[in-house]
């Protein structure tokens, strides 16, 4: 990894007090949804983002969600934590995704789609892993923010963007410019913030899941498949979906379960 990027990661500020409080409540087995709601209500930005997500067609709750307590009761503590953390991280890192040819809103939307898809899919595959994968999918593209910043500083944004636009393997383009893929950068970011080793390593190998240690290979493969379907440059287009289904089939999944979840998501978005 380039020294400039290592320095950027080392200089990252700590996560906000609200996020630390959310993590504390989540880790407390005796805590209730009301305890989490009390923490969230101290941060209007997190509340706004949570309500925006709850009313997104990705989740199809059927009626407008108007208050944070209702949103938390629908999402549950784990997914609420994931949404709050993901939005706070993007705000903290000052997102400029121009080298990837997308806006900061596009980037947030892609993260939401990856998380929603993996949760819908894994509820059918192994429900016990769905919550953990939801958080990882929501955050797994975070490293692209650091890469984007470095590419801009090196005045390579135009050439980088032109290669990303038509790339079938975005990680290869990233490695050509900054020596590492965004999965590896993301892993370093969350290691800096003292996330669990299991969480960090499943993301680290998400661009090369075949190289992952056996105990996390399934997690890394699932993340890889979802980021293939909802890619930065071609999210949920026919080619991306076909690539993802092929990868799922080759990895030994019942690819029809993934296809069902993709179809459900497309129906919700279009409907």
UniProtKB/TrEMBL annotation:
InterPro entries xrefs: HDOD (IPR013976), RNase_Y/CdgJ (IPR052340)
Organism superkingdom: Bacteria
Classification via PROSITE patterns: HDOD
Domain annotation HDOD: ranges: 12-209
UniProt cross-references to PANTHER family, sorted A to Z: CYCLIC DI-GMP PHOSPHODIESTERASE CDGJ, PTHR33525
Descriptive protein name: HDOD domain-containing protein
Native source organism of the sequence: Sulfurimonas aquatica
